[in-house]
UniProtKB/TrEMBL annotation:
GO biological process terms on file: glutamyl-tRNA aminoacylation
Chain's role: Catalyzes the attachment of glutamate to tRNA(Glu) in a two-step reaction: glutamate is first activated by ATP to form Glu-AMP and then transferred to the acceptor end of tRNA(Glu).
Record-annotated Aminoacyl-tRNA synthetase class I anticodon-binding domain positions: 349-480
Classification via SUPFAM superfamilies: An anticodon-binding domain of class I aminoacyl-tRNA synthetases (SSF48163), Nucleotidylyl transferase (SSF52374)
EC number(s) recorded for this UniProt protein: 6.1.1.17
Protein family membership: Belongs to the class-I aminoacyl-tRNA synthetase family. Glutamate--tRNA ligase type 1 subfamily.
Full protein name: Glutamate--tRNA ligase
Reaction equations catalysed: tRNA(Glu) + L-glutamate + ATP = L-glutamyl-tRNA(Glu) + AMP + diphosphate
InterPro entries (alphabetical): aa-tRNA-synth_I_cd-bd, aa-tRNA-synth_I_codon-bd_sub2, aa-tRNA-synth_I_CS, aa_tRNA-synth_I_cd-bd_sf, Glu-tRNA-ligase_bac/mito, Glu/Gln-tRNA-synth, Glu/Gln-tRNA-synth_Ib_cat-dom, GluQ/Sye
Positions contributing to ATP binding: 264
Length: 482
């Protein structure tokens, strides 16, 4: 049975207890940290049979761009982080913010400040000298004269008691109790004007209006939380809504390999750059571990959700280890069905038998180019055919014998029979000085080179079987002709 949403919301959300949100600002491409935050919100919603919503925080018109918004939305879709219902846009909610701001102004909890930038800087400079927290203590909250207004529109600030002895406290679901001295906040700004809210106000209005139960976000927002708590209180005091503050959980930072904050300098930060190399499930699996430990290493987001608890999120920074991502990705590629894999690499003529040989070895999808000899004739320098313990002439002579073996061999027989034939032959071309009296390299090296044009590859016997007799012969002949 579902109930209709509470009266003070303009939406009819179902009355599930847990509702979380992802609230990206479209001021850059989807960042891996934002995707990780989205995943943790998604997991928490899933675990608690709650709802996960998407809100685009695009009130900063100068820095917001549709291109970034598209990239973020596409990125969430690619990762399978599905949200409930429509996407909310802050830019379409200006009437709502205005309503709240007017109410705050009327109640006196917010006021207009007419100080100039210069005056604010002077105040800050003095605070630096006095070794005080930088903040604005505004006397315009009490009264303001026409000359002080000086024809300016003024920005809107929350009135904060500069003499307060109160500690603003919240119980962070990950980090435990966090205290903040109210008086250190100063009369912080909440809007440029009633239709231009700033981040802290817009976020609180939306989280109230959308009945968000838990705010799960990066730890860089910890210092915003006390300000937001004051806004919740002010809105309640202004008689706008009952006081109901969500629970907060601040996720640990993601660190690059050098243990400083992940940035373009020490890692790839934008999700779209991972798309060509990584499977979405693998990236999700990897991101799940950025600040959490699950009972097994390879698991889907649904399996993660079963285990997920906010309290078990790590407190310390999570290191972005690309080697781990590559390993996880290799597991996902290996598990792909051959059909899916073929579609993914878009190479038409990959022999069926070659597919497992490739998927077993790939860490990144674009590395498939290293295996292109399965669908096109290799190109290489003749010198590659020379076995290192011999000369080119002997290597080619041996290859000519190998060609005969291939010609005469019945490939309906098991591949071990073919290997035996090559091994037998290698005894005859053997190097008497080697302990086994044979030189398998002289047989297998030129064969591998002829088939693949590479120094390293899967077992040449397997490659002959994957390519088939005809193609294998064609490549060996070409090598001899060179
Ligand atoms: N728009 C904010 C950001 O992208 C969201 C912060 C929040 O979750 O409250 O960082």
């Amino acid at each position: 049975m579902t109930f209709v949403g509470m009266i003070f919301s303009r939406y009819t959300f179902t009355m599930s207890k847990v509702r979380v949100r992802m609230a990206p600002s479209p001021t850059g491409y989807l960042h891996i940290g934002t995707a990780r935050t989205a995943l943790f919100n998604w997991l928490f919603a899933k675990k608690n049979k709650g709802e996960f919503i998407l809100r685009i925080e695009d009130t900063d018109l100068e820095r917001s761009d549709k291109i970034y918004e598209q990239d973020i939305v596409e990125g969430f879709k690619w990762l399978g982080l599905d949200w409930k219902g429509e996407i909310f846009y802050q830019s379409k909610r200006l009437d709502i913010y205005e309503e709240y701001i007017e109410k705050l102004l009327k109640s006196g909890r917010a006021f207009r400040c007419y100080h100039s930038q210069e005056e604010l800087e002077k105040e800050r400079g003095q605070q630096m000298v006095d070794k005080e927290a930088p903040r604005h203590i505004c006397k315009h909250k009490l009264s303001v004269s026409a000359s002080e207004q000086n024809g300016r529109a003024g920005i809107i600030r929350l009135a904060v008691d500069e003499n307060s002895e109160r500690l603003l406290t919240f119980d962070d679901q990950i980090r435990g109790r966090i205290d903040w001295e109210e008086k250190l906040l100063g009369d912080f700004s909440i809007a440029k004007d009633p239709r231009t809210p700033l981040y802290n106000l817009a976020v609180v209005v939306d989280d109230i209006d959308m009945q968000i139960s838990h705010v799960i976000r990066g730890e860089d927002h910890i210092s915003n939380t006390p300000k937001q708590i004051l806004i919740y209180e002010a809105i309640a005091q202004a008689g706008k809504t009952p006081l109901k503050i969500p629970k907060f959980a601040h996720l640990p930072l993601i660190l690059g390999s050098d243990k400083s904050k992940l940035s373009k300098r020490n890692g790839t930060t934008s999700v779209s750059e991972y798309k060509k190399d990584y499977l979405p499930g693998a990236l999700i699996n990897f991101m799940g571990f950025l600040g959490y430990t699950y009972s097994k290493e390879i698991l889907s987001k649904e399996e993660m959700a079963d285990e997920f608890e906010l309290e078990k999120i790590h407190k310390s920074g999570a290191i972005f280890d690309i080697k781990k991502l590559n390993w996880i990705n290799s597991q996902y590629i290996h598990a792909l069905s051959t059909d899916k894999f073929k579609k993914m690499i878009a190479a038409k003529d990959v022999p069926e038998k070659a597919l497992p040989m490739i998927t077993e070895r790939l860490e990144k999808l674009t590395d498939v180019a290293d295996f292109d000899y399965f669908w096109k004739s290799p190109d290489y320098a003749k010198e590659l055919l020379r076995w290192k313990k011999s000369d080119l002439e002997t290597s080619l002579k041996t290859l000519a014998e190998v060609k005969k073996i291939i010609q005469d061999f019945d490939f309906n027989k098991d591949k071990n029979e073919f290997r035996k034939a090559l091994d037998e032959f290698s005894k005859r071309v053997g190097d008497p000085s080697s302990p086994s009296g044979q030189d398998r390299g002289l047989v297998y090296w030129p064969l591998r080179a002829a088939l693949t044009g590479k120094e390293k590859s899967p077992d040449p016997v397997d490659i002959v079987y994957a390519l088939g007799k005809e193609k294998a012969l064609e490549r060996v002949s070409k090598a001899i002709e060179r």
